[in-house]
C-alpha cells in the first residue's frame, strides 16, 4: 500500500507549524462558557439548545467563526499527522500500518467536515433532525482516528530516539 505523501516528508514542519497556529486561533475564538468541544459532543437537541442559549449571540458568532476556521484546520492537521505516520512507518515494524493510519487521517478529516456541517445546521437554526447525534458520532470517530495516528507517530519517535541512543552508546563504548 502506498500513500501520495510518501515522497513529501519535507512538508511536515511547515504544515505542523501552520497547524499549531490555526489551533491557537481556534482556541482564541472558542465560545465560552462551554467551548466548541462540548457542542460537538452534545448528542441531543436539549443539550445543543442549552449550549446555544449559554453562548448567546456573541458565542454563536464565535462558534461560526470557529467552525469555518476548522475547515482549514482539518486539512492541516490531517496532512501533518499523515506525514508523521509515514515518517514513523520507516522506523517501526509493519510499515503498512503506518501507511494505513496516514490514509485514516484523511478519513478523520472527512468525519470532521461532516461533523462541522451538522454543527453548522444547528447553529443556523435547524430545530430537528439527526444533527446533534451525527455531530457526536463523527467527532468520536474523528478523535479515535487522530489519536491512533498520533500514538503511532509518537511510537516512531520513541523508536528513532531509542535507535539513536543505542548508536551513540555503541560509539562511546568503542572510544
Any overview of this molecule?
By secondary structure, the chain is mainly alpha-helical. The protein has one domain (9-174). It has helices spanning 12-29, 36-40, 45-89, 95-123, 131-174. The longest helix is centred in the middle third of the chain and has 45 residues, at 45-89. The protein starts with 11 loop residues before the first helix and ends with a helix.
Oligomer: single chain
Gap between N and C termini, in Å? 43 Å
Number of domains: 1
- Helix fraction by DSSP (H/I, runs of at least 4): over 70%
Q: What's the overall average pLDDT, rounded?
A: 94
Quick structural gist:
The protein is mainly alpha-helical.
Can you give keywords for this protein?
175 residues; mainly alpha; 5 helices
Task: Show the helix and strand layout.
Elements: H1 12-29, H2 36-40, H3 45-89, H4 95-123, H5 131-174
Helix pairs in contact: 1-3, 3-4, 3-5, 4-5
